[in-house]
């Protein structure tokens, strides 16, 4: 298999770091939307912007209060040897241009689910191996990576039939948004960074525009913004695919969205607009689908992953990867479910120990905040619940984040420890925890807090990004 000259032809590179242990772990072992977003970023000239992501999970598994982290070495092996073969590039290019529809377990699951009646997969490796149709859209990170419409530099879009060209697609979108606002009169300003993201994605994929609409507020922002872009595409002969809901009351929201689509079709005379596709995701399982059917809904397609291909009792850890800063601008993902609101900006994390030697709390601060100091009182706050707060006087402070892969920076990196050292550290960490945090039945919750300054900033940005409703 030949590879491009910007990547290695064998599994060793970057100072002799071996490739992933599992040969199935390649760049194609990914969701299609990672490739569609990469193309949209590149087309919009955003691919060189410096971004910060948080990798985290919201709940410890099996009802416990701790989780053992492992696998960093495999991640570094993958990054150090990241390359695409020519045939893989050709396959991805074909998928994008035609709008085609344990790691090896994910590929196998895609194959067998397709046999069992599923229509498509988002797993690009499975699509290449088995010829399964691919489907994908974009993530919340794509939406929050934009700040304003001014970031869109190439605003032109050729009509579907190729005979015409719109030189300012952005203005066309804004015109349609104004028309929608005047005709409905039930909402105020939509989130403009979301509108910019939708517009940019439509410019990259005018034939495959399916938007994730719950980054800020579904009905006050996501749906009006989507409709404005979809109507602008319609003017040029394209038909939008639809929207995806990934949080909130899926039954209620799908019905509200369908009614909105139908009102747009009636108001502006756009055929079939009321029938645009509504897709739902968000850790769906059989019980959820049954409940939706009993409630009544307007969902046309379901994106099911976690509960389909993993152990049902504890399907997965639920790890998420959220954009929190881009070009030094903090970003936030909002949700009707407060537990899904992200914590913005680049951060530092510390573990504060008490007099008895046990950890009392982990605290996150902004990158440039002073570090907590031994013997000095610090206010620790719950990120979202105002009344949950406590002063802590730490007897020992441990900084938790270390750099093991500096990339192209000159940041000093730590050396990955040997397996035996990792095991010893894991055992020592568990022994340091208070027994009531470790018990199997009803363990005491371990506190993870934010500094007072970070708490204030979270809520400032939350109010700044959330659209304000308007009643008439």
UniProtKB/TrEMBL annotation:
Boundaries of each Nicotinate phosphoribosyltransferase N-terminal domain copy?
A: 28-95
Cofactor(s) recorded in Swiss-Prot or TrEMBL: Mn(2+); Mg(2+)
Q: Which domain of life is it from?
A: Eukaryota
Alphabetized InterPro entries for the sequence: Aldolase_TIM (IPR013785), N/Namide_PRibTrfase (IPR041525), NAPRTase_C (IPR041619), NAPRTase_N (IPR040727), Nic_PRibTrfase-Fam (IPR007229), Nicotinate_pribotase-like_C (IPR036068)
Is Secreted found in the keyword set?
no
EC id = 6.3.4.21
Q: Which UniProt keywords apply?
A: Ligase, Magnesium, Manganese, Metal-binding, Phosphoprotein, Pyridine nucleotide biosynthesis, Transferase
GO BP: any one term:
NAD+ biosynthetic process
Entry-linked SUPFAM superfamilies: Nicotinate/Quinolinate PRTase C-terminal domain-like (SSF51690), Nicotinate/Quinolinate PRTase N-terminal domain-like (SSF54675)
User: Where is each Nicotinate/nicotinamide phosphoribosyltransferase domain found?
Assistant: 241-340
The protein in question is named nicotinate phosphoribosyltransferase
Say which species the protein is native to.
Glycine max (Soybean)
């Amino acid at each position: 298999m030949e590879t491009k000259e910007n990547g290695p032809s064998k599994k060793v590179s970057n100072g002799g770091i071996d490739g992933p242990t599992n040969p199935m772990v390649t760049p194609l072992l990914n969701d299609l939307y990672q490739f569609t977003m990469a193309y949209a970023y590149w087309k919009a000239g955003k691919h060189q912007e410096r971004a910060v992501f948080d990798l985290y999970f919201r709940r410890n598994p099996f009802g416990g209060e701790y989780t053992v982290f492992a696998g960093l070495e495999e991640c570094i092996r993958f990054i150090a040897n990241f390359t695409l073969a020519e045939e893989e590039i050709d396959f991805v290019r074909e998928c994008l241009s035609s709008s085609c529809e344990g790691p090896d377990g994910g590929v196998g699951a895609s194959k067998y689910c397709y046999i069992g009646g599923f229509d498509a997969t988002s797993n690009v490796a499975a699509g290449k191996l088995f010829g399964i149709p691919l489907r994908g859209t974009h993530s919340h990170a794509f939406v929050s990576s934009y700040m304003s419409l001014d970031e869109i530099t190439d605003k032109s879009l050729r009509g579907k039939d190729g005979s015409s060209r719109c030189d300012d697609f952005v203005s066309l979108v804004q015109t349609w948004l104004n028309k929608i606002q005047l005709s409905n009169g039930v909402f105020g300003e939509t989130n403009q960074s979301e509108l910019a993201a939708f517009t940019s994605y439509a410019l990259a994929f005018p034939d495959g525009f399916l938007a994730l609409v719950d980054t800020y507020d579904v009905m006050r922002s996501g749906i009006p913004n989507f409709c404005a872009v979809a109507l602008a595409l319609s003017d040029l002969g394209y038909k939008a695919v639809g929207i995806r809901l990934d949080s909130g009351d899926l039954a209620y929201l799908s019905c509200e969205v369908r009614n909105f689509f139908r009102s747009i079709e009636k108001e502006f005379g756009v055929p079939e607009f009321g029938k645009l596709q509504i897709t739902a995701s968000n850790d769906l399982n059989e019980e959820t689908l049954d409940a939706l059917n009993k409630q009544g809904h307007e969902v046309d397609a379901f994106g099911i992953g976690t509960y389909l291909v993993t152990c049902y009792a504890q399907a997965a850890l639920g790890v998420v990867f959220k954009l929190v800063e881009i070009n030094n601008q903090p970003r936030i993902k909002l949700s009707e479910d407060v537990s899904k609101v992200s914590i913005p900006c680049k951060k530092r994390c510390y573990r504060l120990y008490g007099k008895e030697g046990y950890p009392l709390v982990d605290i996150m601060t902004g990158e440039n905040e002073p570090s907590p100091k031994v013997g000095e009182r610090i206010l620790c706050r719950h990120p979202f619940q105002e009344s949950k707060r406590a002063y802590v006087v730490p007897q020992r402070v441990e900084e938790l984040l270390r750099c093991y892969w500096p990339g192209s920076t000159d940041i000093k990196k730590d050396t990955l420890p040997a397996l035996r050292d990792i095991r010893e550290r894991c055992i020592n960490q568990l022994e340091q925890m208070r027994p009531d945090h470790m018990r199997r039945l009803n363990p005491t919750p371990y506190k993870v807090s934010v500094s007072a300054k970070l708490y204030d900033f979270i809520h400032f940005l939350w109010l700044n990004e959330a659209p304000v409703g308007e009643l008439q």
